[in-house]
Amino acid sequence: MFSRSRLLQLTETMRGRRIVVYGDIVADRFIYGTPKRISREAPVLILRQYRDDTLLGGAGNAINNILSLGGLPVPVSVLGSDAAGNALIDTLKASGVACGGVMRADRYATPTKVRILGGMPHSSRQQIVRYDIEDRFEMSGDDAQTFARVLHNELELAHAALISDYGYGVVTPSLVSNVTGEAHGKPVTLDSRYDLLRYPHVTAATPNEEEAAAAAGTSLWDDTNGNSKISDVAQTLRQSLDCEAVLITRGSRGMALYERDAAAPVHIPVFGTDQVADVTGAGDTVIATFTLALAGGASYLEAAKLANYAGGIVVMKMGTATVSNEELRHAIDRDEELHD
């Protein structure tokens, strides 16, 4: 079904493609500690902190993956005027990403997901607890006009747009409607954690199983015989969104791609092993690869195949990780199921 030479060619056409990334940039903070003892105050482990990393999460992780794959991400978002926002802006600028489309707002706290991990520095570390610092950006009329102008200008120069909605208020239906209306045939992809059906007329959406089932208002499994209802769910979402394709990520079961006018989804088995190390941000990697491939001229099935490789690679890494173009090429080279 897939040609090795064609997939390798697509990894090259992905390079240099300009992708507008409109969405919620999140700070993924990882605090590492070595175990000291059990506390006398409560039955909890005391850690001695030795490392504290703040990484790009949410739409920021999609930006990072586009960059790692050789693309040119153009962020359109908002960050708080706080330490987390400053750290993320510094990271983006250090990577050479232009941040003119990233608004700073004093009234907004940068969403931050804090993960506490315990273990020795040179051994595997286990996540002990996570807590989220959350806020919602209340977009004013002036803010909406500013975003509309920036999106219009950046989309004119881009090859595709990626919408990453984590529910923190940066993404709105009216602005997404502007993007889809002004795309003029350029791919517009959607990843929405809670409100998938609020953004119709995108080119394609990439929900995971849980998000897909919630949006379709049903279970993915038939309670009577245990059969999967993935076809019904995928068809419901595609019709509701009036999009060209829906790519449902299924964890250890791989992916299911449902295209317009298709009789049934195409199932793509998971790449690599189903014994994963960390699924943090895997969905961001998938949509980044999928979008970049579409921008490079891939079909939906080819883009899904490349995204499947990328997802299989990134879940074997700890924390919020990225996939490089070289890693993607290596995965294609060693896939024995491809024909030459």
> Given the structure, what is the number of helices?
10
CATH topology category name: UDP-N-acetylmuramoyl-L-alanine:D-glutamate ligase
Largest sheet: 9 strands, mixed
Count of beta strands:
13
> Helical residue percent?
25-40%
CATH superfamily: Ribokinase
Low-confidence stretches: none
Would you mind describing this structure in some detail?
The protein has 340 residues and is of the alpha/beta class. The chain has a single domain (4-26, 59-107, 136-333), classed as 3-Layer(aba) Sandwich (UDP-N-acetylmuramoyl-L-alanine:D-glutamate ligase), CATH 3.40.1190. Helices cover 34% and strands 26% of the residues. The chain contains 10 helices and 13 strands. It has helices spanning 4-13, 59-68, 83-94, 141-157, 173-182, 209-216, 230-241, 282-295, 300-314, 325-333; strands at residues 18-23, 25-38, 45-58, 72-80, 102-105, 112-118, 126-133, 160-165, 188-192, 204-205, 245-249, 255-259, 266-268. The strands form 2 sheets. Strands 5-4-1-8-9-10-11-12-13 form a 9-stranded mixed β-sheet, sandwiched between helices. Strands 3-2-6-7 form a 4-stranded mixed β-sheet. Helix 2 (59-68) packs across helix 8 and helix 4 runs parallel beside helix 5 (173-182). The longest helix has 17 residues, at 141-157. The protein is globular, with a radius of gyration of 20 Å. The protein starts with a helix and ends in a 7-residue tail after the last helix. The mean pLDDT is 92.
